[in-house]
Amino acid sequence: MKALKTKDNIKPVLKWAGGKTSLIPQLVKHFPSAFNRYFEPFFGGGAVFLALKPSGNSVINDVNSEITNFYEIIRDRPKDLMSELDCLGSKYSEDFYYELRASKPRSQVKKAARTLFLNKTCFNGLYRQNSRGEFNVPFGKRPRLPKLYDKNQILGLSKRLKKTELLNLDFEQVLDLAGPGDFIYCDPPYEPLSVTSSFNSYTLNGFSKKDQFRLFEAAERAVGRGAQVAISNSSAPFVKKLFRKWEVVTIFSRRAINSKGDRRGWVEEVLAKSY
Predict the structure, then answer these.
(1) Where would I find the H helices in the chain?
(2) Which has the closest alpha carbon to 129: 189, 75, 48, 183?
(3) In this structure, are residues 230 and 188 in contact, taking their beta carbons and an 8 Å threshold?
(4) Cβ-count burial 143-160 (b if 16+ within 10 Å, e if not)
(5) Which structural domains are found in the chain, ordered by start?
(6) C-beta separation of 32 from 228 below 8 A
(7) Of the candidates 23, 64, 60, which has an alpha carbon nearest to the alpha carbon of residue 40?
(8) Which of 28, 73, 168, 221 could disulfide-link 112, Cβ–Cβ 3.0 to 4.6 Å?
(9) Beta carbons of 36 and 89 less than 8 angstroms apart
(10) What is the pLDDT of the chain when averaged over all its residues?
(11) pTM of the model
(12) CA-based nearest residue to 115, from 73, 67, 166
């Protein structure tokens, strides 16, 4: 079993709705103190992965190929990515934003730069796709170009990713790879607390109750093979009922991304643990 250490000098490069940066102190105290491999099937912005430094191998995954490509380019061609971002930044304007949003670059580097540029310059830092799999967040209307990247952060993340297996699979396939002594942390799109609070359109297919149940069953299989699993989710009654045989602890998070300022505040969510 490998010891777990924390490392807080590499922050997420992408701004991500539901990102866990502010929750790291609450989450880490509930994680196993030792494990073999670390798995994160819903990578997104990767805040938990970046806050931890497992001394064993890590397996990270995102079903969204645009996100996977972004991290592959950071791993393999970070300097090319930064150069392309500098080029995009020199063209910053509302018209250019919509022109880039409508584009479909063929180059993997240009695709990755487009992903980060739109994330940094869109409204409220959302990452959202419509039913056709197209990024559809409007322009952020900042008068000046926001900082697109930090060189040290990009290079630090590139170094971390070189020692990590990066996958583009359905989450169920990833959980099925875990075995004895492994630790899996899952941060899926949350079960809505109400019909109007739903936001799980990170991919074109969303995330349904059926997917939540598939996740639970895949986690149970992993536990049966000797893995330890922790899953973040909303405090919806459906979630608490689904994980009623696990230990479910309350986590308090601050909702930072909302179009209405009075709806940003502390909300209750849960961490379900198999161990």
Answers:
(1) 24-28, 47-51, 65-76, 78-89, 94-102, 108-121, 151-161, 171-175, 209-224, 237-242
(2) 189
(3) no
(4) eeeeebbeeebbebbbeb
(5) 2-65+170-207+231-273 (3.40.50.150), 67-153 (1.10.1020.10)
(6) yes
(7) 60
(8) 73
(9) no
(10) 90
(11) 0.89
(12) 67
Regarding beta strands 183-186 and 38-40, do their DSSP bridges make them parallel or antiparallel, or are they unpaired? Answer: parallel
Distances (CA, A) of 75 to 153, 155, 162, 264: 12, 8, 6, 34
Q: How far apart are CA 91 and CA 121, in angstroms?
A: 12
Q: Which structure tokens are listed for 140?
A: 């952020």
Question: Which amino acid, 10?
Answer: I
Please answer whether residues 124 and 259 qualify as being in contact, where contact means their C-beta atoms are separated by less than 8 angstroms.
yes
Nearest to 253 by CA among 264, 240, 267: 267
The encoded tokens of residue 81 equal 């990515």
